[in-house]
């Protein structure tokens, strides 16, 4: 029983020792924990102080940064205002630049037009010189033309004369037209008479030239004797066409001949049944309607 108690006590002592050891360990651990905590607290306090200092510094720095930010915002606002002013100035400058560009473009166009005008002036000067030269040449040509016109007029006159001569050469001509006014007598030969009232017969003689330019063949001969009053002496009822005038006329004598490009002498006798008036008479010879010759004579 005692053993049991001893053992129980021994177990209780061992248990108490164990408990004491545990408590000692716990106390030791507590002491160590307290030391650690103290050290930790000291360290934490130091860290807290350091953190407080840092916080204070950061707070100060934050305030400085905030002030800097505020200043920066103010600066930014100022800069934005300045930027807006600059933009407005830039817009105004751009408008001014555009205006000046437009003026420059107009001035360039004007300069181009001026250059073109200068070129045209130069060309005009050249043209004036050319015109002066051409005017001198024109004056010379006008003088030459006037001389040529004078020569041409002279040649035209000569040409017309030649044409007239050629035209005349294409017609037959009555040459050596002679008029004999006679008075017949009962006895003896007729005598030449110059008193109109005593003339009872007129003899007309002439010669037709030989012309190789005139076609041979039958030709009509008309004689017209006109008295001082302009009447046809012994005028017929029939008429003939006067070439080139379109007029017709009575005639005193008519005949036809055969022409073979040789000279032909002709004689015609006109018997006056009525008394002639004094004055100037005209004898005309027409061959194929063309006046080919004639002669005036006077009777008292």
Structural commentary:
The chain has 300 residues and is α+β, with helices and mostly antiparallel strands. The protein has a domain at 173-299: Immunoglobulin-like (Sandwich), CATH 2.60.40.3880. The chain has one helix spanning 2-169, and strands at residues 174-183, 191-192, 201-208, 217-226, 239-241, 248-250, 253-259, 264-271, 279-287, 290-299. A hairpin with a 7-residue loop joins strand 1 (174-183) and strand 2. The chain is rod-shaped and about 250 Å long. The model has no long low-confidence stretch (mean pLDDT 79).
Give the SSE map.
Blueprint: H1 2-169, E1 174-183, E2 191-192, E3 201-208, E4 217-226, E5 239-241, E6 248-250, E7 253-259, E8 264-271, E9 279-287, E10 290-299
Antiparallel strand pairs: 1-2, 1-3, 3-8, 4-7, 4-9, 5-6, 9-10
